[in-house]
Design goal:
alpha+beta, NADH Oxidase, 2 domains, four-stranded mixed beta sheet
């Protein structure tokens, strides 16, 4: 059962991608049918934050229509769109025509967000949009600390002990959150709390918070140097970070010299031949980034907090400009411990009373890493 589901999902995705040739597929490439049967391009929603949900009118989760409508009313003016796709695949809990479903939803829940024609979300007849969504965000598991989550997990595991290994939609009211730029950010199972979904929606609607949430450590870059003007913007953003007593206890050196990076990398390759050999994509010792921002702090100590705030400002500014960054410590240790690298440090022209603290690799990203889990249990609110 598990293998069959994975094969079907893989074939469906390949078919969807083939429709667009070699072009990178995005959510805006898909079309759907509205409740009147008219074709709608999801490109019409470009620039909006989307919450896409498969629904049913006779499900235990059907009251979530009220929660969705409340969310829509609260945030629609700020750019939120909720796209509702009724689906009858789970317990046949969405019977009737789309017109009958729409009438039911407006009469019982007074919904105003758009409803689309009934679709299938799993199997050979699944809507290509859902093939794409599932490929971007697979099943993350039910919350087993919740009664309904445990109930659903038990139900599915009886039929297939490995049901959680495939990305299929498991039940009604599964939701996908889409950023303004079309990235599929998160998938929510029907048991997930609406308060958590609302918090994520708020983060995405606010451009500053959205930028913070989108930033990742990038370790693969295009072979394309960053324009000098953009590097200047990063530095300007950095030096405007908070600084205690406005002491600004840091020195910044921006490396644009590709030969300097290549020359010091040759030394690294000699010292780490086996490691470099294992990395088929190795270009330089700075995660292959074409540009470096070197942050220095007083040699006697102090200024680390200010330097950290400075770097965070620059990395967030880079994200806003379509650039990727990665904070590096390993190359710094290598540079400071190897006398052969003296020429690199000399070129940086660091004042005698300062030392290199950390390096920010910066360039045009050649990957889109997923977010790593964050442990919210470490947070306590003292009221």
């Amino acid at each position: 059962m598990k293998v069959k589901s994975i094969i079907i999902a893989t074939l469906a995705l390949l078919m969807a991608v083939s429709c667009f040739g070699q072009k990178t597929v995005s959510i805006y490439d898909f079309t759907v049918k509205d409740e009147a049967g008219k074709t709608v391009s999801l490109a019409d929603y470009q620039g909006k934050v989307l919450l896409i949900v498969n629904t049913a009118t006779r499900c235990g989760f059907t009251p979530q229509y009220s929660d969705l409508e409340a969310l829509y009313e609260k945030y629609h003016a700020e750019g939120l769109e909720i796209l509702d796709f009724p689906c009858n695949q789970f317990g046949e809990q969405a019977p009737g025509t789309i017109q009958e479903i729409h009438q039911f939803c407006t009469a019982n829940f007074d919904i105003h967000f758009p409803q689309f024609d009934k679709i299938e979300v799993n199997g050979p007849g699944e809507q290509p949009l859902y093939t794409y969504l599932k490929a971007q965000k697979g099943f993350g598991g039910f919350d087993l600390n919740e009664r309904l989550g445990k109930l659903l997990d038990d139900m599915f595991r009886k039929d297939d002990p490995n049901y959680d290994q495939n990305p299929d939609i498991k039940w009604n009211f599964t939701k996908f959150l889409i950023a303004r730029d079309g990235r599929v950010i998160k998938r929510y199972e029907p048991t997930d709390k609406m308060s958590d979904i609302e918090a994520d929606v708020q983060m995405e609607l606010n451009p500053v918070l959205s930028n913070i949430m989108a930033r990742r450590s990038v370790r693969k870059y295009l072979d394309k140097p960053v324009e000098h003007e953009k590097l200047e913007l990063l530095v300007r953003a950095g030096i405007n970070a908070p600084s205690g007593m406005n002491r600004q206890p840091w020195v910044i050196r921006v490396v644009e010299d590709q030969k300097l990076i290549a020359d010091v990398t040759e030394i690294y390759k000699q010292e780490n031949a086996e490691q470099v050999k294992r990395d088929q994509d190795f270009k330089n010792m700075f995660r292959n980034a074409p540009n470096l921002i070197c942050i220095c702090t007083p040699a006697k100590g102090g200024g680390e907090l200010d330097a950290g705030l400075l770097g965070e400002n620059m990395m967030l500014a880079a994200q806003a400009l379509g650039l990727g960054t990665c904070c590096l410590g390993g190359p710094v240790r290598f540079l400071l411990s190897n006398e052969k690298c003296r020429f690199f440090l000399d070129r940086l022209d660091i004042p005698e009373d300062y030392r290199l603290n950390y390096i920010i690799a910066v360039g045009y990203p050649n990957e889109q890493p997923d977010a790593k889990p964050r442990d919210i249990s470490k947070v306590k609110y003292i009221k």
